[in-house]
Amino acid sequence: MHAAQEPERGRRPAGAEAREAYLALVERIASSEARDGAAAREELGALPAELLRWLTDRRLLDAGGERLRPPERALRHIVMEHRRRLHETVAELGRDAQAMEDVLSLLTAPRLDAREAVETEYFTDRERTRERLQELDALSREEFLAMRNSFPDARVLEASLAGDLRMAADGIRMRVLTSQQALRAQAAARYLDALADAGAEVRVAATVPLHMNIVDRAVVVVGSGPGPQGEGGDVILHSTPVAQCFVRVFTHAWDLARPHAERRAGRGSAGCGLSAQEREVLTLMATGAKDETIARRLACSDRTLRRLMNQIMEKLGASSRFEAGVTAARLGLVN
Fold first, then answer.
1. How far is residue 250's CA from residue 243's CA, in Å, rounded to a whole number?
2. Can you name the residues that pair with 262 across neighbouring β-strands?
3. Other Cβ atoms within 10 Å of 32 Cβ, number
4. 124-154 pLDDT per residue, tens
5. Higher model confidence: residue 8 or residue 22?
6. What global pTM score does this model have?
7. Looking at residue 109, what is its pLDDT?
8. Residue 305 to residues 142, 207, 335: CA-CA distances in angstroms?
9. Residue 268 pLDDT more than 50?
10. What are the CA-CA distances from residue 220 to residues 12, 53, 143, 193, 228 (Å)?
């Protein structure tokens, strides 16, 4: 290579010099009659280290340093390498993000070796508990969770419904998990329907493990007595770590439950389509009368009675006689 075409040894070639040297090198190799690559290796071997590094950095020289690449192939190599690095960077960022989430969860998790004074209230009078609950409900700002295996009488439910509806109107997320047994009470069914209509989420499970309320994941009210509603004693715990433990119990049971009274087409006004005879059948069913007794009371055959029951289930959107009875109670069709 001529001195004018070769950068001085010991210094990094400027871009213009390197490009001119590359083009001159390509031209000489292309004009060579050698077909075994010997001419290319000889030319490359005579290049200074700085120029070889410039060519290698731009992928204009193959990995072995024995052959020049055309610019389009060098560009393809650069793009492929950048694509690979981008994928690696995305994967690494994902791992870092997961690590951050894991560490943050440890910062908010209850520490088993830490001691915390938990403010506790205990009531043996259920009326006093309800008064205290009204005070806590008024302080609720974000979320209200409730578990119920049974409900109090209609008078108590009506008194508490107004406050519950105010909470829903204030944008507080309300979730109520109840048992199938509790839904058999007409007052309870109406109460839950009113909450659902106001935007509360209601789900039903075969049974629920506790009778409790959780306010803003910071305060827990648990019935600790022997009765289904914890009659005989109520404990109120003011502790976020403790409340988080009860939230996990609630969430587990909630995820296994089904939505309450999934309304099918026309179900909300199903009662309006029932005939007087069908209403009488529902009333007799609610008293626990057997099919023979109902048929005798209506002076109809067993076949006619079965047809009537099928019509009732269809109008109520029920898949079984039991579900028809629950729906009838919810709609106030039976006493």
1. 10
2. none
3. 14
4. 887 888 788 778 777 778 899 999 888 888 8
5. 22
6. 0.46
7. 53
8. 51, 33, 21
9. no
10. 73, 70, 12, 24, 17
- The alpha helices in the chain, defined as continuous H runs, are 15-31, 38-45, 49-57, 71-108, 126-139, 154-169, 180-183, 186-197, 240-256, 276-286, 291-298, 302-316, 321-330
Q: Which tens digit of pLDDT belongs to each residue from 193-248?
A: 888 888 899 999 888 888 889 999 999 988 876 554 545 678 889 999 999 999 99
Coil, strand or helix at 148: strand
In one-letter notation, the amino acid at residue 267 is R
What does each C-alpha distance from 274 to 120, 124, 223, 307 come to in angstroms? 52, 46, 41, 14
User: In this structure, are residues 138 and 165 in contact, taking their beta carbons and an 8 Å threshold?
Assistant: no
Non-local (6+) Cβ contacts of 185 within 8 A are 150, 151, 329
| Residue keyed to tokens 């109120």 | 236
Phi and psi at 178, nearest 5°, equal: -130, 170
HSE-up of 113 (CA within 13 Å, CB side)? 0
Asked if 122 and 233 touch (Cβ cutoff 8 Å), the reply is: yes
Question: Which tokens is 287 given?
Answer: 């008293």
The number of residues in the chain equals: 335
Q: Name residue 146's beta-bridge partners.
A: 176, 213
How far apart, in whole angstroms, are the C-alpha atoms of residue 334 and residue 279? 8
